[in-house]
From TrEMBL:
Domain Carbamoyl-phosphate synthase small subunit N-terminal: 8-145
SMART domains according to UniProt: CPSase_sm_chain
CDD domains: GATase1_CPSase (cd01744)
Source organism (scientific name): Sulfodiicoccus acidiphilus
Swiss-Prot/TrEMBL GO biological process terms: 'de novo' pyrimidine nucleobase biosynthetic process; 'de novo' UMP biosynthetic process; glutamine metabolic process; L-arginine biosynthetic process
NCBIfam families, per the entry: CPSaseIIsmall (TIGR01368), PRK12838.1 (NF009475)
Family under the similarity heading: Belongs to the CarA family.
UniProt-listed Pfam families: CPSase_sm_chain, GATase
Gene it is expressed from: carA
Entry EC no(s): 6.3.5.5
Protein name: Carbamoyl phosphate synthase small chain
């Protein structure tokens, strides 16, 4: 790499000793994270602000990133449009080619956005071979930096993604209320909720109370909810004993519960199942899931590194969705209780809306519950 148009070289050092050299963009910071990739061809503003990417360096397989700039934030009752949280959550971004795009609603370039938010970017690297490596050896920790290669990467890489509880960094400190125009209150146990989930609930008239991820069942029940949603979030679900207990305790109230992504995994653990780390995860917006029973395929958005395999399904539940590529369990329904969970993202953001009816189904359950 001899010439970088923004002046600075950039580097990604991987846990296995590989050093990739490219061009720096965004902010000249050094950050550590688990190196993961998404196959989404668009939606970088949503992906970068998805709290579930906290602690991870995101590699985008689509070769041109930045084409349509970064939209201006629109906030409606505290809920953002076009972004999934108030800041970039990913630790760093790796792309093949970073572009200065424009679009009618773009307020700045990707480069400027990363610069303002203190997040390093790396471009002009062969993302294809990087992804092949990650697919082959599994996800690894990495250091992203600019200027010079990292001087002591081994020390930096002592930090392991799987051992950190990121949810406490993202969860609100106190409850936040978003009012819907209809009846019914849903408490969202917020371990880093995507705003797309909040939008999906308020759009259906529901009032949303976002409570800290550390809340126990009694604190959740103080809001007399008609339904409870356990949100998506970053990190290893096996560290979240408190949240698992809260889910278990709440299941006894027989109130409709919907778990999404991390929420699905917490539910599985609460009901006695098992959640394991995958080799390189599912991250993208064109992943098929099959609904058991109807045999319908839905194209859906995924962002998960942990998963429930067939032998980890808890007793008393049945598989609702699975991924036809690798058979991973993508959703469960409880046989007796009004509990349903999905590993994928029915709110999309970014991605297709094929499965947004999951929220309609939840709404139906919430209405049946009577409090609404
Ligand atoms: N999007 C999510 O909620 C991700 C859940 C969990 N952190 C995983 O990677 O599997």
């Amino acid at each position: 790499m001899s010439y970088c148009r923004r002046g600075s070289k950039g580097y990604l050092y991987l846990e296995d000793g590989t050093l990739l050299e490219g061009c720096g963009f965004g902010s000249p910071q050094t950050r550590i994270g688990e190196v993961v990739f998404t196959t989404a061809m668009n939606g970088y503003p949503e992906s970068l602000t998805d709290p579930s990417y906290r602690g991870q360096i995101l590699v985008i397989t689509y070769p041109l990133v930045g084409n349509y700039g970064v939209p201006s934030p629109v906030i409606d009752d505290g809920i953002l449009l076009n972004f999934e949280s108030e800041r970039i959550q990913a630790e760093g971004l790796v792309v093949q080619e970073e572009t200065e795009g424009v679009k009618w609603n773009s307020s700045k370039s990707l480069n400027r956005w990363l610069e303002e938010e203190g997040v390093p970017g790396l471009s002009n690297v062969d993302t294809r071979s990087l992804v092949k490596k990650v697919r082959k050896s599994g996800v690894m920790m990495g250091v992203i930096t600019q200027g010079e290669p990292p001087s002591d990467p081994e020390t930096l890489l002592k930090r392991k993604y799987d051992e950190i509880d990121f949810t406490s960094l993202l969860s609100p400190l106190k409850p936040i209320i978003h009012r819907g125009k209809g009846k019914g209150v849903v408490v969202v146990v917020d371990c880093g909720v995507k705003h797309g989930i909040l939008r999906s609930l308020t759009k259906r008239g529901l009032t949303v109370v976002r409570v800290p991820c550390s809340f126990g069942a009694d604190e959740v029940m103080d809001y007399v909810p008609s339904g409870i949603l356990f949100s998506n979030g970053p990190g290893n679900p096996n560290l979240l004993e408190g949240q698992v207990k809260t889910f278990r305790d709440l299941s006894e109230y027989r109130i409709p519960i919907l778990g999404i992504c991390l929420g699905h995994q917490i539910g599985v653990l609460a009901l006695g199942g098992r959640v394991e780390k995958m080799k390189f995860g599912h991250r993208g917006v064109n992943k098929a899931v099959v609904e058991v029973g109807t045999n319908r395929f839905y194209i859906s958005t995924h962002n998960h590194g942990y998963a429930v395999f067939r032998d980890g399904v808890p007793d008393g539940t049945r598989v609702w969705f699975y991924n036809p590529d690798d058979n991973v369990v993508e959703g469960l329904k409880h046989e007796k209780l009004p509990i349903m969970t999905v590993q994928f993202h029915p709110e999309a953001s970014p991605g297709p809306w094929d499965a947004r009816w999951v929220f309609d189904l939840f709404l139906k359950e919430v209405k049946k519950n009577g409090n609404s």
